[in-house]
Amino acid sequence: MSPTTPPPPGTGDVVAGAGPIGRRRFLALLGAAGAAVAVGGRLRPAGAQTPPVPNGYVVAWPDGVIAGDPTPDGTVLWTRVEPPAGAEPVPVTWEVAADDAFTSIVAGGVAVAESSADWTVKVPVTGLAADGWLHYRFLVGADAGPVGRLRTAPPAGTPTASLRFGFASCQQRGTERVAQRAASEEAGLDFFVHLGDYVYVDDGATVSLDDYRGVYHAFKGDARLQQLQATLPLVAMWDDGEFRNGIDRTEDPARRLAAETAWFENMPVEAPGGDVGRPYRTVAWGDLADLFLIETRSRRDPELDDDAAGASTAGRTCLGAEQKAWLLDGLRSSTARWKLIASPTDIAPWANLDPSKRGFGGWDDYAAERDEILGVIAAEGIEDVVFLCGETHVFIAAHLMPSDDPGGPAVAFAFTTGSQSADPDLVRSAGGDAYAATQGFVNVGFGSTLLNPHQTYVNLVNFGYTVVQVDECAVTVEFRTVNVYDPDSRAQTLARFRVAHGATRMESEIADIPALSAPDPSRTIPSPFASTGLSAVPAAVGGVCPLPAAPSAPQPVAPAFTG
Fold it and tell me: Phi, psi (5° rounding) for residue 467?
C-alpha cells in the first residue's frame, strides 16, 4: 500500500498490505492516511479530518483495555479514555503488533473517542493472521495505554486439536477480585467467557443511559479485573444484573434501550446485523467447536410465582421465537465436533419434581421450551452438546434428558459455574461456626443430588470460575475455587468432569472441599460425593475417536486427588 492509498473499509487500518512494519514507517503511513479515521470502530465519511488532541488534555485509561470475540482474521479492540474538560473529540491511535515492544506492527489506525459513545473506542480489526497471539495498545499523542493480548481463531472448518477457555459469572463490588486475578494466571487459556451479572445495577436508581454508564465505570476500575481482561480476550453475554433484577420482555422500552446501549458501549462486541438488541451470536474454533452464546433475559416471558403452575405450558418462552430458531438451526447445521451453548441461566431442572410447577433453576419456568430444545437434540441425533451456565451462584454438574425420559441416556450435559464474588455468602450469613456451616451446606448440596438424580455435583459454598478443555475426543470441565477473603489465595480444583465424544454419561473426580473462612482456611470438608474416576481417553485414530466405555460404578475419591 502506498502512503497515499486510503485505508480499507471496515477497520481504518493503515498498515493493511504493508505490514509487519516498524513504528516509524507506521507513523508515516498514519500521517498520510489521516483523512480517514474510525469513530467507534467505523470510518468517517471521505474528507473527514482527524481532530487535534484537545489543548492541555492529559489522557488516562480508567477502564483498561479489552479484546473481544476471536475470529480467524481479527477481533474487536476496546478502551475508554478520560473525558476532556471541554468535551472535544479525542483522537486515539490503535496498534496491533507481533511483540509487546511494538517494533513489528501488523495493523493500526486512528479512532476518535466522543461524548456520544461515553468516550469509548471500539475498533473491529480484520486482516490478521489466523490462530495466533498478538499484542495491542491505544495511544493519545505519544502517551500509550496498557498493553493487551489478542487471540485469533483457527480458520473456519480446519482441523483443530484443542481449545481451552475459562468462564464465569456474577461479580460484585465490595469484595476482593481474587477470582479474576486467579483466572488471569491460568495456564493456556485461549479466551475467557463472562456469562453476565458483570455489573449489578440499582433496581430503582439505575434508569437512564448515564446511570448505566456510571455503573460500568465503577465496576471496570478494578485493577484485578483489568488484569484479566488485558491478559485474555473477553467473550461476553449479559444477564439481568446489567438491566435490573428479573428483567423480561415487558421491560420499559426506554430503560431497556439505555441498558443495552451501555452494555454494547462497554463490551468488545459487535452487534450482529447492527441490532443493539441482539447480542446472541456464535464463536467458532476451527472444526473442533462452535460456541453459541444465547441471551435468556430480555426476550423471555415473565417468571412464575414460586407456587405457580404452568411451567410446562406450551408457548412459554425463555429465548423468544427468533433466537430459538437461530439456535436450533445452528445446532442442526454445525459441522463442529462439539456444540457448546453458553447460557447465562442454568438449563438443568432443579428440584422440579412436579412438572406442572416451577423449580429453582433459571429454565424451570420454561420447561416446555427446554423440552423442545432437548427433544430436537435427541430426535435429530445431534451429538456432543454441552451447556455452560451461570447466574445461580452454585456449581452444578448435570445430565440433560427430556422430561418424558428422565431416567434415560443424557442427550446433553450442563455445567453451571459458581459466582466469582457475589452474594449470598451462605457460610458467613449462617453465623456461628463457619466450619460447621460449611459442612452443613456441603450436605445440602449432596441432598440436592438425591432429589435430582440427573445432578452429579452441587456446591453451594465456594466462589470461583470454571475451566474447559476441549479436545477431539473429550470435553473436560474443572470447577476452580479461591478464597475471596484472601487476596493471595491460589485457585484449587473442586471437581473435574469429563464428557467423551458420543457419551451419554459423564465421568467425575471430586476433591474434598476447602473451607473458606478463618481461622484455618486450610481445613477441608470430606466430600460426600461419589466419584467415577476419569478414565484415560485414547487419541483419535484416523480422525475417529473410540466409543466411550460404559461408566463404572461410583467410587470414593482417590486420596491422591487434592485439586
Answer: -115, 135
As its CATH architecture, domain 162-525 has 4-Layer Sandwich (3.60)
Please say whether the beta carbons of 93 and 81 come within 8 A: no
**467 alpha carbon, distance to own chain's centre:** 11
Cα–Cα nearest to 40, from 271, 293, 277:
271
Q: Which CATH class is domain 23-151?
A: mainly beta
| Amino acid type, 210 | D
**pTM tops 0.90:** yes
Instruction: Identify whether the C-beta of residue 281 lies closer than 8 Å to the C-beta of residue 136.
Output: no
| Alpha-carbon torsion angle 219, 225, 231, 237, nearest 10 | -50
* Enclosing H/E stretch for 182: helix 178-184
- CA distances to 16, 19, 98, 132 from 149, rounded to whole Å, are 20, 18, 10, 10
Is pLDDT at 352 greater than 70 in this prediction?
A: no
| CB count in 10 Å sphere of residue 384 | 22
What percent of the chain has pLDDT above 90? 67
Pull the grid cell for residue 47: 474528507
Instruction: Give the model's pLDDT for residue 36.
Output: 47
Q: Which contacts (CB < 8 Å, 24+ apart) does range 315-320 have? A: 315/368, 316/365, 316/366, 316/368, 316/369, 317/366, 317/369, 318/345, 318/362, 318/363, 318/365, 318/366, 318/369, 318/370, 319/294, 319/295, 319/369, 320/249
Domain with CATH 3.60.21.70 in the chain: 162-525
Residue 549: Cβ within 10 Å count: 10
What is the DSSP track for 328-373? HHHHHH--SSEEEEEESS--S--S--STTB--SSTTGGGHHHHHHH
